[in-house]
Amino acid sequence: MALTLTDLSRDPWLLPEVDALIGANMPAFMSWESPGNWRWHGMYDRYAEHQLCLVDGAGRLVAAANGLPVHWDGTTSSLPSGSDEVLVRGVDRPPPDRPDAVCMLSVSVDPVHRAAGHAERLLTEVRRRAARHAPRGVIIPVRPTRKPLYPLIPIDEYAAWRRPDGRCFDPWLRTHLELGARQLGIARASLVIRQPVARWAEFLGHPLPGPGEHLLPGALVPLRVTADDHGTYTEPNVWVHHPAGPAAP
Ligand SMILES: CC(C)(COP(=O)(O)OP(=O)(O)OC[C@H]1O[C@@H](n2cnc3c(N)ncnc32)[C@H](O)[C@@H]1OP(=O)(O)O)[C@@H](O)C(=O)NCCC(=O)NCCS
Fold first, then answer.
1. From what superkingdom does this record's organism come (predicted)?
2. pLDDT by residue (tens digit) across 102-132?
């Protein structure tokens, strides 16, 4: 099926579909209040041309990739703490007039269209565009797709897991690495969601009577409940860097 590439500057009417696709692909708590989530639509407004969409012949959204231009000096030590910080900087400050890099914060493919190369096409397009205006390429705080099955394994160890054939264990991290991306490090607190325990308990469908680490379906790490009756989800991601230009063959 031939898909057309567009973006929210050319087809702003796709905005609700982009939101719906991302929402359907993520656990609900991922869109709760957080410094980054408060600014998510600010990213659409300010950087509409960086919100890429693949649509089918009937105009239906099949996949989306969301990002924004950033300043980055190319060193691991100067990476932001994660997606919250990227959004805070990108939306609260004036847009960079000469960005060094693009930061991709989300790639989503409609579940019926997975494993068809659409995510790869979007990543390749972002790299190609970066070659024109962001010479340091593309940085991504990757949310490894199979990590929710292993919430007790530290993210550094998980990211280092390899299959018997030597390929990366996590399918989404593998896609990046096999396109020629390099793993830069861990974004330990990429997205932080702090909410009253009652809200988490309602979401889980069971009470959280005491402090400690509680398992949260769809989360990469446990939820930390503290004695002040709040629960904090601190999502770690894996920073990867794609050079600008064509992807590895
Ligand atoms: C992450 C995501 C965009 C990847 O899209 P995709 O179309 O699955 O990407 P790929 O085609 O590169 O697939 C990656 C691997 O997963 C495998 N895969 C994808 N969908 C699969 C499915 N339904 N069943 C089995 N394997 C699947 C692919 O075969 C591929 O494995 P390979 O490297 O051995 O070939 C997509 O899974 C998604 O939208 N997930 C939910 C949102 C998300 O977590 N986004 C990432 C963080 S922002």
1. Bacteria
2. 999 999 999 999 999 999 999 999 999 999 9
